[in-house]
Automatic annotation (TrEMBL):
This is Glycosyltransferase 2-like domain-containing protein. Pfam families: Glycos_transf_2. Transmembrane segments: none annotated. One of its GO terms (molecular function) is hexosyltransferase activity. Coiled coil: none annotated. Residues 10-135 form the Glycosyltransferase 2-like domain.
Length: 302
């Protein structure tokens, strides 16, 4: 392996007690159609108490035999884990690639993922232009995915995979998270770096992906999706997603709606809540007083 060669893509993998699925995840990197000589795998272990680190070390030979590089960091199991956001930030900090590919340690990537998402990110980076700054457009690239087990979150999977491209940055208030799921994210390092602090490090129960997603949009960032199935997105009881409450997501969405549309300078002068049932009442009660003063409620009886 030529250790002096340029690294184009860093695959970012936060790890915490991931041994059950980790080998399948890592092995999927070896199947990539993109040259692994330009790929670095950056793993940050967040205080695992199983043999996750040992499995990552065992992966080193297979990766290096194909020209790839492996960077490992982290803390031992004697300390308290600091959360997924912290682990992602540390994995990025120790990496060197121009582009970042995010991968959860329980998921599996399709062979064309790096090649397809790099092509989309480069297209936007080289040809896109922010009208306000006349600079390069910052883009988060996602992809279609499938779930394992197949029947899990069927309605959400269909919605996320079929949402039209022009609505990816519009339907941010109707979804329970980013309109492209975090495990499919791919972006230029400079796109990540312009978010102060990177991912939230508040720890377990914090939707660090949604917080980052909103900040990206607030800075004028764009969203794209490669319309290929590039990820096997695993559904299991120990997934990080289950540590985040629906109420937390609701509050984030509501506060953003207020700040961006209802109480900001130049925001809406008024709005109407149609079909004010249970969700409408919950929405109204959750608003701050200033936002409440702008609305009217319409109850449809037909």
């Amino acid at each position: 392996m030529d250790s002096a060669g340029p690294i184009l893509i860093s695959v970012i993998i936060p790890v915490h007690n991931s041994a059950k699925y980790l080998k399948e995840c890592l092995d999927s990197i070896l199947t990539q159609t993109f040259p692994l000589s330009q790929v670095e795998v950056s793993v940050w272990d967040d205080c695992s108490t199983d043999n996750s680190l040992q499995m990552v070390e065992e992966f080193r030979t297979s990766l290096e035999n194909r020209g790839g590089r492996l960077v490992i960091g982290g803390s031992n199991g004697d300390q308290q884990p600091k959360g997924c956001g912290f682990a992602k930030n540390k994995a990025i900090e120790q990496s060197s690639g121009e582009f970042l590919c995010f991968l959860d340690s329980d998921d599996v990537i399709a062979p064309r993922r790096l090649e397809a998402q790099l092509a989309e990110a480069r297209k936007k980076k080289e040809n896109g232009c922010d009208a306000a700054t006349h600079g390069p457009q910052h883009v988060l690239v996602g992809s279609r995915f499938h779930r394992i087990p197949e029947a899990s979150t069927a309605r959400y999977t269909q919605w996320a995979n079929t949402l039209p491209q022009h609505l990816l940055d519009v339907q941010v208030f109707t979804s329970h998270g980013p309109t492209i799921i975090m495990p499919t994210w791919f972006c230029a390092r400079e796109t990540y770096s312009r978010i102060p602090g990177g991912f939230s490090e508040q720890g377990k129960g914090t939707p660090e992906d949604l917080i980052f997603f909103y900040k990206h949009l607030d800075l004028g960032g764009s969203i794209r999706r490669v319309d290929e199935d590039l990820l096997m997105y695993r559904y299991h009881p120990n997934a990080t997603t289950f540590s985040i409450s629906e109420e937390t997501i609701w509050e984030l969405r509501l506060r953003r709606l207020e700040e961006r549309l209802l109480i900001c300078p130049g925001g809406w002068q008024g709005f109407t809540i149609w079909n004010a049932g249970k969700q409408g009442k919950r929405f109204y009660r959750g608003l701050c007083q200033k936002a409440r003063s702008k609305q009217s409620i319409v109850i449809c009886l037909w």
